[in-house]
Write a structure and sequence with these properties.
171 residues, alpha+beta, 5-stranded antiparallel β-sheet
Length: 171
């Protein structure tokens, strides 16, 4: 006579455990960056966007030297915009038809509400580039400082006077 086991097995299979562990790993990988320091994350995001916009202004100036662009920081440190050197008071429109303005706490910088910008002294009020890609009227490197009131993190976006190379560093 063959015995059949009526005893119930308890526990989980190896496959079930691996699936649960994988799901937990994926969820934690997504949530850990969100739990980080908001001020520092906002400063990093703002510095990367500022560096990209400076490089965009440089590329626009190289492409159209007779109609060169410039990056103009707001006097209150709340952001910046891109304009033509011939009319630095008026932001130019982007490909979406909207003015190329950046304000901390809104739009792509919505996570950077606590960030402020300290700009170097700029001739004509904005950062422009010559037909060789170097900053106009600058004999030394230009450093834009981004930080928060809480001092979470301060980053500098530096533009080389000789080459126009843009880099991000801690001052």
């Amino acid at each position: 006579m063959i015995r059949t086991s009526t005893r119930r097995q308890r526990g989980f299979t190896l496959a079930e455990l691996l699936i649960v562990i994988s799901v937990l790993a994926i969820v934690s990988a997504l949530l850990v960056p969100l739990a980080g320091n908001d001020g520092a994350t906002g400063v990093r995001a703002a510095a990367e966007l500022l560096a990209a916009d400076i490089e965009d202004v440089q590329a626009r100036s190289l492409a159209e030297p007779k109609n060169a662009s410039c990056l103009v920081p707001y006097e209150d440190g709340s952001g910046w915009y891109i304009a033509r050197m011939s009319d630095a008071a008026t932001p130019i429109d982007g490909i979406d038809g909207q003015p190329l303005t950046r304000r901390f706490g809104s739009g792509v910088l919505s996570g950077s509400a606590k960030v402020t910008l300290t700009a170097p002294a700029l001739s004509g009020g904005g950062l422009g580039f010559d037909d060789q890609g170097a900053p106009v009227a600058s004999n030394s490197a230009l450093t834009f400082l981004l930080g928060t009131d809480q001092g979470d993190l301060t980053l500098g976006v530096e533009v080389s006077a000789a080459t126009g190379r843009v880099s991000i560093s801690r001052p």
